Amino acid sequence: MNWTMRTDPSGFQTRWSQQLADRYLREGHWTNTTLVDAARASLAADPDHLLLIEGENRLTRRQCWDKALKLAAFFLARGLKPGDVISFQLPNWVESAVIALAARMTGLVINPIPPIYRESELGYILADCRSKLIFVPGTFRKHDHAEMLAGLRTELPELRDVVVVRDAGELTWDMALLVAPANETALPVVDPSSVMMVMYTSGTTGKPKGVLHTHYSYDHRARAMGDAWKIGPDDVVFMPSPVTHITGALWAFDLTWIHGSASVLMDVWTVEEGIRVIEEHRCTVNGGATPFLKQLLDTASSRPEAIASLRLFFCGGTTVSPDLIRTAGATFPGCLFFRCYGSTEMVTATLGIRDRAQADLGADTDGEIVYPAELQIIDAVDDTPLPHGKEGEIIARGPGLFFGYVHPSDNHGNFIGDGYFRMGDLGCIVHDDYIVITGRKKDIIIRSGENISPKEVEDLLFNHPAVAEVAIVAMPSASTGEKGCAFIIPREGMNIDLPEIRRFLDDEGLARQKFPEHVVLVNELPRVPSGKVKKDVLRNEARKIAEGSG
Q1: CATH number of 445-547
Q2: Residues 188-221: tens digit of each pLDDT
Q3: Strands 450-452 and 445-447
Q4: How far is CA 266 from the centre of its chain?
Q5: Contact predicate 113/88, CB 8 Å
Q6: Residue 376: which H helix or E strand, with range?
Q7: Stretch(es) of the chain classified as CATH 3.40.50.980
Q8: Angle, to 10 degrees, between the axis of helix 290-300 and the axis of helix 322-331?
Q9: Which of 133, 321, 326, 523 has the largest CB neighbor count within 10 A?
Q10: Closest by alpha carbon to 314, among 346, 350, 278, 345?
Q11: Residue 76 — φ and ψ, nearest 5°?
């Protein structure tokens, strides 16, 4: 199968196989439409249907469409053209959905950035994707985002505008919507094979890598998820997952238009408020990482009537205990609980299970492999295919697979054979077409579903005057799934502790969720002959410490 690199209107280089494209189009997995077409059809069908709920804010299809036309006109007035990147670092606010739709109307590339990111991550991402405009809150959770951007502007020559949402500023959201709405007939024609999103994910190389999704790949997964789980206009989806992550973005921006559901957003998660929201809005679908499910289970088990409206709960993003899924199903028998598997690069590689007859498989496996998604297991050393039941490295391909990284050099080594992507996980295929994740080749720490790159944190700590060497690995955590454990060789005559590490990283502008939460001072680090640190040994030591045996 021949693969070429194509230059997108955005200037990004994307991977392309005409043979696969022809197949996906022929079989109907890709359609030559964009979200704008789905939104227009939904608008015509029921303009007053509720699209999004967030606190006291409500947004109907008509309201979102009208605001998006005004924002599209604003984008055009600022000189933005198809392929330009616009960023937003917003909480789960309804404005983000307006931005996403307006960007599709004008052929712009959206770049969602988690609100927890600070100067270090934010400056890198905006420069790396050459963002032209960014939407930020003024102050959110006691952090002044507008001030943070002001301090970065001199380092970002391509960033033209900063739009402040729900606060005062030189250029605000309300100002942006003062323009007359764009003429629909004058909107640019958008090629669905062009890049629609660049979303950054932490990698083993330290700096986050920009994942490129086109209208084709993103739209396919939104349709596949809704079809598999029978999402429709009667569904109300509770989605506390950040809209700046792939899962939250799909449910807030796309499934609402494509499948007719409404989504309930929450900008600051607390389990008590989550349960109240589910009960008030009679939410039918919910999803989240293991810690979220555990909190929900612990709190709502004494009042099951509060979440009796739920019919489906999908769980992923980190290690998921089969016992947790089973306990949830037994406690709330009216809701189908299951595990599913995917990544930013390969969104929902599995779609979990589809009915109660598969309930045991929903607990014991990470979901069914449903064509056209293709997952294989290969030997982790020599890449030879392995039979079902044998553990190896997971590779994946399908119409929902991303089109490469921002830097083509990051593609090297991550693709194999006929366009399969190395997922970075170990697993095996059981029961013919179900996958079980058994471990990770990557060193990523998954804390409450958030990917944290140890190398990124290590690189900063190496600059601390008391640190001679440092290696950070995942330590099991009952509350967050995993947390960072730092093994540090201190410089001679010096000492360092956890409070000092936190102070230092805070001064460096790193998101606090990435801070190590346990530190071990050592005289040496275990190494292979080449000098590389044996992180498997450290992970084992961290596990023993967490279990109280180390």
Answers
A1: 3.30.300.30
A2: 999 999 999 999 986 444 678 999 999 999 999 9
A3: antiparallel
A4: 16
A5: yes
A6: strand 374-378
A7: 31-217
A8: 30
A9: 133
A10: 350
A11: -65, -40
